[in-house]
Amino acid sequence: MPRFSIIVPSHGVAGRLSLALDSVLAQSYGDFELIPVCDAPGSPAADVATGHAGRDSRVAPVNSPPSAGLSGARNTGLRAATGAHVLFLDGDDTLAPGALAALDARLTKTGDVDVLYFEHERTPWWEGEPTNPAAPLLAKTPAGAFSPAQAPQLTGVQLPAWSAAYRRAFLTEHRLTFPEGRFTDLGWGGLVTVAAERVAVLRSVVVRHLLRRQGSRLNLPGEHHHQLLDQVELVLGAAQGLAPERSHALFEQLFAVVLKTASRPERLPSGHRAFFRRAGRLYRSHRPADFHAPGGSLGVQHRLLASGAYTAFKALRGANRSVVGAAMGVPPSRAKSRAWGRVPRPRMLRTRLLYARALRRRLDPNLAVYCAYWGRGYACSPAAIHAKARELAPHIRSVFLVEPDAVDAVPEGVEHAVIGSRKYWEVLARAKYLVNNANFAEGVVKRPGSVHVQTQHGTPLKKMGVDQSTYPVVAAATGSFAKLLGRVDRWDYNISSNRHSTQMWERAFPGSYEALEYGYPRNDVYYTATADEVARVRKELGVPEGKTAVLYAPTHRDYQTGFDTGLDLDAFCAAAGDDVVVLLRAHYFYDQGRAKSSGRIIDVTGHRSSEDVCLAADALVTDYSSIMFDYANLDRPIVVYADDWEVYRETRGVYFDLMEAPPGPVARTPEELAEVFRDGSYAGAESSALRAEFRSRFCEFDDGLAAERVVRRVFLGEPPETVPPVVPLAERVPAPAATLVRS
Fold this sequence. Notes:
With 743 residues, this protein is an alpha/beta fold. The chain is 39% helix and 14% strand. The strands form 3 sheets. The chain has an 8-stranded mixed sheet with strand order 3-2-1-4-7-6-8-5, with helices on both faces. A 7-stranded parallel sheet has the order 11-10-9-12-13-14-15, sandwiched between helices. The chain has a 6-stranded parallel sheet with strand order 18-17-16-19-20-21, sandwiched between helices. Helix 7 runs parallel beside helix 8 and helix 21 (531-541) packs across helix 23 (610-616). It is globular.
C-alpha cells in the first residue's frame, strides 16, 4: 500500500496538466500513486495522463464524465485510491519541491491523524507576490496532534480540499465523499471537520495554487449560487451535537461565506430575495444556543439575516458601497460610466463619433465580418469560412476587411471594406459575427450578443501569447501582454486543428472562450482539391511540367532583421538534381524574398494563397515554420532544415523538441539537405514512417469539413452533436500530388 494517493481532476486544464503531474513525479519522496481523473479516454487530458502513465507505473489514470463535475471526479479518484493517506491537487496546480517528504516526516511525528492541514501558496497567474492565506489560521493551533476542540477555529470551511492530507481509513469509516453540486469544497471541509477526532498541521507550503486569470468560476453570476446554501445546510445538519465552542466557530464561518454572497446581488441575477430568505431560515433553525453575533458591520448583517429583514439588508449594502465608492473618489453620477470610459476607442475624433454612434444601434444578426493577417487579403481560414457561409448560410451578409493595397486581390463577388474607412467601423460595430485569424484593432468593442471567432493561423511549435514573456527578444517585440489579453477576452470560440494546439492555446491565451476542435478551415482544400486543380495551380506558378517542385518556406527569426533565405538555393538545385525546382515562400512578414532570380527558383512569397502553393509542391523543406503541420495533411515528403535549431529554441522558445519528433529527415547543413534529395531518402520508407507519426499527432481534426463545422455550429446555431464528425485519418484521401506517389 503506498503512503500517499494523489488525486488530480483534470477537466478544463489539459494545457497545464503535465506541469501538475510532473511536480508530483519529481518529488524526492517516491512512495505514492498518482491518479489523474480525465473526462474520457482520448480526451486531451487523457492523452497527457496516458503519456505519463507510459513513462511511470505509479501513474494510474481513471475517467469521470464532465457532467459529474469536480465532486464526481474527486469521488472517482477516491474509489480508485489505495494509499494510506489521500491528497487532492487541482490540474493546474503543483506540489512544492520536497512536499511529500515533509508530509511523511510530519505524519511520522504526529502519528496517523485523521486530517493533516498544511499551508499553500496562491500564485498570481501573471505578476505579483504569492500569498499564504492558511498560515495565520494554522499558526494558532497546538504544536502536535490535537483534538478539534482544542482549535475550534480550524473548521476546514476556510481551507480548500487540496490544503490537507486525509487518512483514507478515516474517510472510509465515515463514508465521506464530496457532496454533489457547486461549492463542494465547503461541504467537504465542513463534513470532514465534524467527523475528525485527531488532527495536526504542517506549517510549510505543500501546494502552489495558480490563481486563474478569469478568477474562480464560482464567483460568476448564475443560479449556481443557490447551491451554496445546499452545502451549508448539509454541514449544519451533520454538526448537530457538536460541543458549543466548535459549533459556534463552524456556524460563524459558514454564514460569513453566505453573507459574502448575499451582499453581492450581481452574483444572483434572479432570486436574490429568495436566497436571502432561505439563508435566514437556515440561520434561525440551526443557530447554536448562546451564539453571539460578531461585532461591527458583519454583526449587523447577522442580525438582519436572522430577522429576515431583506429591505434593510439591501439598504445597508447600498450604503456600504457608496462609502467605498466615495473613499475611492468615484462620484455616484460617474460610477456607471466609469467602465465605459475605459473602453479603448479609435483615435481620430470623427472616427470616434462615427463608431460610437454605430455602437448605439442594434446588432445586425445577419452580418458577419472577416479579416485575415491584419487585412493583408482574402486568405486563410477566414476566407474558407466566408466561402462556406455563403454556401450554407446565404442569408448572412459577409464583409471581408482588407488594407487599401489588398483591394485588387479580393475575388470578384466578395463584399469588402477598407480598413479605417467609414464602412469598416460601421460593420465592426454592428456585426454579430466577427472572424479573424489574428486580432481586430485595439479599439474594437466586444458588444453583448456578438460572437468572435479566432481561427488562429498555424499549429504552435514556437512559444505564443503569454508564454513568450520569459524570452526577452520576443517579449520586447510583442508589446503589452495586458493588451494582448484584452483582445483574447473578446474571443467566444478558438479553433484548433489538434489537441496539442488546444492545450497550448489554453496556456498561451488564457480566456473564457470555447475551444472548437474542428480542424483549420484553410486546410479543407488539402482534401477537396482535384488533380486538375493541382495542375492549374502549378501552371499559374510557372512550375515546368514533369519537374519536382520543392517548396522552401523558412520561418521568421526574431533575432534577425529582414529576410534571409538561410540557404543558397542555386547551389541546392544544382546538387539536388536536374529535375528539382524551388518554390520560395518567405514568411508573410516579408512581401518579397530577396533570392537571386533563376529559372529554377520561383519566388511565390507574394502569392495570395499558401494553400495553393502547398498543393503545387511535391515536397516541403522548412525549418521551424508552422507550414509543416498544414502541409502534412497532403501526406507528401517533408524535410526539416535545422541549421540553427539550438539558437532558435533558446531565443524563441518551443513547445516540443522538433528534433525528437520531426515530420521527415532532418538536415543540419546544405550538403546534408542536398544529399537527401539526391539519394531519394527524402521520400523513402523512413521518411514516410516519420511523417505518418507526425500526421497522427498534428493532423488530428483536419479532414476537409472544418469550415462546414464552424458555419453549422457558430452561424446556424446547430448543437455540437449534430455537426459532421471528424473523418478518421486512415479514411481520408488527400489531394493528389503532381509527380510523387504518397505513402
